[in-house]
Design goal:
CATH topology of the largest domain: Chloramphenicol Acetyltransferase
Radius of gyration: 25 Å
Number of helices: 8
Number of domains: 2
CATH superfamily of the largest domain: Chloramphenicol acetyltransferase-like domain
Oligomer: single chain
Shape: globular
Distance between the termini: 40 Å
Strand order of the largest sheet: 8-17-16-15-11-14
Strand content: 15-25%
Length: 408
Amino acid sequence: MPKLGLTMTEGALAEWTLAPGARFKAGDCVFVVENDKAATEIAAASDGVMGAPLVAVGETVPVGAVVGHWDDGVPSIASVAVADPADSVATTARRPVTPFARRLARDHQVALADVTGSGPRGRVRASDVDAALKARTSVPTPTPAPAPSPPAATASATEANRALAAYRLQPPAPAAPGTAAGRLQPFTGVQQATAARLTAAKQDIPHFYLAREAEVSCLLDLYAKLKDPQTEPRLTLNHFFVAAVGRALRALPELNRIWTPQGALLLDGSDVGVAVHTEYGLRVPLVRDAGRLSLIDLARRANTLAERARAGRLGADEMAGGAITVSNAGMHGLTAMTSIIVPGQSMILGVGSVRELFRPDARGQPALRREIALVLSLDHRVLDGVGGAALLSEIVDGLAHPTRLLFD
């Protein structure tokens, strides 16, 4: 089990992409690991032949544990255990499939070979698996047998996955008197790990919050002149926020710190995380040294990271580090957002939507302003209100003078 990030201590084996006895080349995906941040495809370091797996699909093991064997010489294929046909993915080992789509197909016993991919290069997405599942369940079938009981704790992980998939496909049983009707939707390994990590973050990190309104009339005017859907990279307002945070870290490097049991760790550079919504959860890739990039270079890097996040292709090194993340909810029309700090960091900036309102000018006359609410969540173990206010002021000032963010 590889270590995918500084804070990772265990991971769930989400999928074996090769059946025992299958030959593979260096760079081919051998298995998929899920943790609270991502589903990561683990590639072979050299050519070989797949041996017997030691860890079942769905099982969580500590970092460093042996999960299976492979042969780098001439193997005795006959001695290799035969794979269960339901688990064999030899026909789809090199087919582009998002990790979430693989998980849905596995949970619902959908053969990926029969699914038509709608993504780039025929990549199979979760929506494609859903479509195949609906087409299968829409065919009239005989009266189903009684729903099986949920898998026993002593069953193997593979058997549990099959039983759970069958259980989920049965019609929901009538609710007992006094209970709400519904159907249980089990959490995935990533969802369970994310819930545990965020619960621990909220319980262990003493959050406190600072809020400011940022006047963004100049920013919106500049953005209107610069944005062009026909040119690359595609600019968004969020790129300005990431740039402003990066510049603020450069101006106040003593605040670029995180908590460790041994003391406050001062970070080099000005890395800024960007919260990206994907079909299988929130991902936070890091724009490295965002405070030193021109806006165009920053947008190019951020867009590439967002695309990799949505495709489930982020590497562990692309999500590790940094003291702060930008989480923008403005596109959803939210006035403001108070966010939970990403585990391992010490701050997160919640960004709201643009609001137009009148405020008195220097002469006391009503003046139209365009503002965005910013809420900075901080870890009180390593940061205080004075430092947080200073950082937030730097961010607001950068947004008020957006031309400063254009160049490196």
